[in-house]
Amino acid sequence: MSHLIATLPGDGIGPEIMEPTLELLEALGDFEFEEYLFGGASIDVNGVALTDEVLHACREADAVLLAAVGGPKWDTTDPQKPRPEQGLLGLRKGLGLYANLRPVKPLPALYDASPLRCERIEGTDLLVVRELTGGIYFGEKTRTATSASDVCSYTTEEIERIARTAFAAAERRSSHPKVSSVDKANVLETSRLWREVVSALHEREFAHVELEHVLVDNAAMQLVSAPADFDVILTENMFGDILSDEAAMLTGSIGMLPSASLGGDTGSSGDRAPGLFEPVHGSAPDIAGKGIANPLAMFLSAALMLRHGLGLESEAAAVESAVEGALAGGLRTPDLGGEANTVQATKAVLEKIE
C-alpha cells in the first residue's frame, strides 16, 4: 500500500535535509511524495506563507513532512507584512493539530556532546506534550504607536483534550506513569483554570497516573538540574515552546530533536486529520547551502511520522535504530563537534538501514 506524503521543504537548510529524508523513506517502503511551497519560499512566490491550495493538499495527504521555515530575509516587525511562521500556525490550525509531542532522550553515544555533565542527563527519557492551537500565540492582538497586547485565552475543552493526550501518552510509556503539568498559577488566571481542569480530569479518569503541578520557572530549573525526574511534561503553547527548546539541549544539539503534531478531525467529514512531522530546529540560514546541515532530527521526525502518522512501527524503529547505530559508530556532524557533512551523515544511516 502506497502512502501519500505532502512534503514542505521550506526555507534555509530545509530542502537540504528533506532530500535525504525522502531517500531514507524510499529505502523502507512504498511512498508517494508531493512537494509544495511553504513559509518564506511561498511568500516570495505567492505573497503568503500558506496558500489555500497547499492547505487543501495537506488535508488530502496521509501525513505532512515539514523541514524548516523562516530566515532574516523575511524578518519584520510590521504586522501587515507576512512572516514564514504564520504558515506554520495556519497549518496547525487548519489541520486541527492541537497536540505537539517532542520526545527527548539523550543517546549514550552523545552524552559527551551535552552541555550538562553525563551524570545529570543519564537515564533521561521524557516527552513534552505542548498545547498547540490556543494561548497567547492565537489570542487577539492589538498594536498602536505606543502600546501592544497579546491575549492569552484557553477554554476548558482545549485544556482537557491536551491533558487527556498527555495522560494517555504517559500510560503508554511506563508502568509507573507520571505527568508534570506546568503552569504559572501563582500569577495567571489562564494557568489557574489550567490547573483546575487538569486536576479534575486526573481525578475522574487517570487517578492511577501520578500528577504533579510545577510552576514554569521551577520546571525550567529542574530541566537542567534533574531532567531524569520527568516522564511526561504537559503544558500550554508558549511555555511548551520555550521548555521543549531548552530540553533539546540535553541531547547535545537542537539538531537532534524531532516532533509530531497530532489532532482530531478535519471538519464536517469526520476524517482523521493527517499529522505534521518536523524537526525542532530552525532553518539555520547561517549554514544553508554549505552541505553541512545535520539531517538526523529530520530522519527522526520521519520515524515519528511512520509510527504516529502511518502506523508503521517496525519501520519507525528501524530508522531510530539506524540513527543510534550510526552515532555509536562515530558519526558526528559539526553541531555535534565533528566534521561529517549532510551526505556523509545520510550514508552512515542508510548503511545501518541496509
Assigned CATH superfamily of the largest domain: Isopropylmalate Dehydrogenase
Widest sheet, order of strands: 2-1-3-12-11-4-5-10-8-9
Radius of gyration: 20 Å
How many structural domains? Answer: 2
The top level CATH class name of the largest domain: Alpha Beta
According to CATH, the fold-level topology of the largest domain is Isopropylmalate Dehydrogenase
Q: What can you see in these coordinates?
A:
It is a single chain. Helices cover 40% and strands 18% of the residues. A 10-stranded mixed beta sheet has the order 2-1-3-12-11-4-5-10-8-9, sandwiched between helices. The chain has a two-stranded antiparallel ribbon with strand order 6-7. The protein is globular. It is of the alpha/beta class. Helix 1 packs parallel to helix 12, helix 6 packs across helix 7 and helix 8 runs parallel beside helix 9. The chain folds into 2 domains: 193 residues, Isopropylmalate Dehydrogenase (3-Layer(aba) Sandwich), CATH 3.40.718; 137 residues, Isopropylmalate Dehydrogenase, CATH 3.40.718. The longest helix has 18 residues.
